[in-house]
Amino acid sequence: MSAPYINFHTHHIPDFSVETDYFDTHISIVNLDYSDVIDPNIPNTYYSIGIHPWSTVCATDAPNCFDEVIEEIRKKLPMKSILCVGESGFDALRGANSDIQRKLFLSQIRLSEKMHKPLIIHCVKMLSETLELYKSVHPTQPWIIHGYRNKAEQAKQLMQHGIYLSFGTKFNEASMHEAWEANKMWLETDASEHTIEEVYQTASDCLQVPVETIKEKLYQQFTQLIEQ
Fold this sequence. Notes:
Blueprint: E1 5-10, E2 26-33, E3 45-50, H1 67-76, E4 82-91, H2 98-115, E5 119-124, H3 127-137, E6 143-145, H4 152-160, E7 164-167, H5 173-181, E8 185-187, H6 196-207, H7 211-227
Parallel strand pairs: 1-2, 2-3, 3-4, 4-5, 5-6, 6-7, 7-8
Helix pairs in contact: 4-5
C-alpha cells in the first residue's frame, strides 16, 4: 500500500462529510486558533494550536491580555489530536514589537517543552533572532519553520542545529535540496488553495525524486514524530 501524503501545515480542515476517500491517503496537521473547536474524530487529521505573531498586536495596549490565552492552550494540549504547538514565532513586518513577540514566543516554547509537542514556527525576516533563541533555550522538542523560502546557506545553518524546514509552493530550490539530503524536510499547503498533491509534484520536479519516494520518506519521519 502506498504511503499517505503528509500535509504538515494547513489552514484548511478536510470535509469528512464529502471526502471520505481522502482520509485513506492523506494525513494533515491543521493549524487552529486557540479558541477554535477541535474535532478529534476526523480520521488522519491532527492539529496545532498557538498564538500567531500577527495576533500579538493587541498586546501592545494590554500587555497581560495573553495570559488567559496561554492557559487555554495549555489546557487543550493534552488532547491526542493536537500534535504541535504553534504557529508561533517572529514577524518583522506584522504584529506587535519584537519584545512582545519574543515574550509570547517564549511562552509557547515552554508549552512545547512541558507538553512534549513539536513547535511550528512562523518566521519573517527574523531567522537570525529565531536561531539565537533556539541556541539560548536548547529545546528538546523539534522546531519546524514553515513556509521556508530563504537561501540554502541559512537553511544549512538552521538544520545544523536540528531545526526542520517545511516547504510550500514557493521555495528556494537549493534549500529544498539541502533539507531533503539532511532528512529535515516537510511539505505543506499552508493557507493556499493548492493541493498537497501539487506540492509533492513540485518537490519531485525540483529534487528529481519520484513522488512515491518522497511520500515514503516523509511518512517515516512522521511516524517517528508521533512516537517520540
